[in-house]
């Protein structure tokens, strides 16, 4: 799908949006994305300067489905008004215009993403980690109150502004993969996918909590989870499960005879073997040992340990994490 030309002014209900440039992102977008300058009307006050504009074409079914789903997510009570989600400014349907895409959304512009910020052991980083956890967990609580889950938590979808200042902002963006809890299988990015989802279960509320912790862990130690170093795409599931098994040795992966889906039979068998035999994976230490080898405050280790429980029935809810002594203690630490 082609992008809007630089300088094109997209008319919105609230404001107009002058297209400036394409935004590359992490190259997983199913829509076109641009940075735009907001052109206010005469009665506008306190107008932000920039906007993030996403467009989808009606001949691109997946992109349009995701964009429509994102719009529907903002209709859920509490989403549009919450400070933990990126603000939605406008929904623009250009079906009657000679435009490249048929539908656009104009959203709040934030300066960068967690994926673009390098983890460094210092107080500013720990403040950022608390902001990220707080925003992501609060977003979970809001979605869970409507029995929905976000299946796309990842560093690239944690949006940030004010890095290097005392006014850091962290928000959750890209709500195109928000679904009713328990209705979607084989979802979540590999590095953030919960153990139970790998084993064929639907993505539910506990799966979100795992994904948020995994997002933070993968930011702190890139590549510790997921498939960036997988030798072949056909073994991505097994490779990812083997990494979880290395980090959490007590995690029981079922035998092939205990699962019904043929692809999963193959994946679980290979995952167990890889976790014992592949040299690159043997370098992965159990979570506790791995965290001790990384410079970070004990409070952050405690939160990751609290959230990354392989048994979803024993994993705390997002609201429980926010109310925990571990999280409150970490907040107190970064506020000193």
Automatic annotation (TrEMBL):
<keyword id="KW-0547">Nucleotide-binding</keyword>
<keyword id="KW-0418">Kinase</keyword>
<protein>
    <submittedName>
        <fullName>Kinase-like domain-containing protein</fullName>
    </submittedName>
</protein>
<keyword id="KW-0067">ATP-binding</keyword>
<keyword id="KW-0808">Transferase</keyword>
<dbReference type="InterPro" id="IPR000719">
    <property type="entry name" value="Prot_kinase_dom"/>
</dbReference>
<dbReference type="InterPro" id="IPR050117">
    <property type="entry name" value="MAPK"/>
</dbReference>
<dbReference type="GO" id="GO:0004674">
    <property type="term" value="F:protein serine/threonine kinase activity"/>
</dbReference>
<dbReference type="GO" id="GO:0005524">
    <property type="term" value="F:ATP binding"/>
</dbReference>
<feature type="domain" description="Protein kinase">
    <location>
        <begin position="1"/>
        <end position="334"/>
    </location>
</feature>
<dbReference type="InterPro" id="IPR011009">
    <property type="entry name" value="Kinase-like_dom_sf"/>
</dbReference>
<keyword id="KW-0723">Serine/threonine-protein kinase</keyword>
């Amino acid at each position: 799908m082609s992008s809007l030309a630089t300088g094109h002014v997209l008319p919105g209900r609230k404001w107009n949006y002058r297209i400036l440039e394409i935004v590359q992102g992490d190259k997983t977008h199913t829509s076109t994305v641009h940075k735009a300058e907001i052109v206010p009307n005469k009665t506008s006050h306190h107008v932000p300067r920039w906007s993030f504009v996403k467009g989808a074409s009606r001949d691109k079914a997946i992109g349009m489905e995701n964009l429509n789903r994102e719009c529907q997510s903002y209709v859920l009570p509490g989403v549009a008004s919450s400070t933990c989600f990126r603000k939605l400014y406008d929904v623009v349907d250009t079906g009657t215009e000679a435009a490249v895409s048929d539908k656009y959304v104009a959203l709040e512009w934030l300066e960068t993403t967690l994926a673009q910020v390098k983890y460094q052991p210092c107080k500013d980083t720990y403040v950022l980690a608390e902001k990220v956890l707080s925003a992501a967990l609060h977003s979970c609580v809001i979605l869970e109150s409507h029995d929905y889950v976000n299946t796309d938590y990842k560093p690239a979808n944690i949006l940030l502004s004010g890095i290097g200042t005392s006014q850091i902002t962290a928000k959750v963006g890209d709500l195109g993969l928000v679904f009713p809890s328990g209705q979607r299988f084989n979802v979540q990015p590999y590095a953030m996918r919960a153990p139970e989802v790998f084993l064929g279960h639907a993505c539910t509320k506990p799966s979100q909590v795992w994904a948020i912790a995994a997002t933070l862990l993968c930011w702190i130690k890139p590549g510790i989870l997921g498939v960036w170093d997988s030798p072949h795409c056909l073994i991505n599931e097994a490779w990812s499960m083997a990494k979880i098994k290395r980090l959490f040795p007590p995690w029981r992966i079922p035998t092939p005879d205990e699962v019904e889906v043929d692809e999963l039979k193959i994946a679980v068998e290979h995952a167990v073997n890889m976790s014992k035999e592949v040299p690159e994976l043997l370098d992965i230490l159990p979570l506790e040992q791995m965290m001790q080898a990384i410079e970070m405050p004990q409070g952050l280790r405690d939160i990751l340990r609290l959230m990354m429980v392989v048994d979803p029935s024993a994993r705390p809810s997002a609201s429980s994490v926010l109310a925990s002594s571990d999280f409150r203690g970490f907040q107190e630490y970064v506020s000193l």
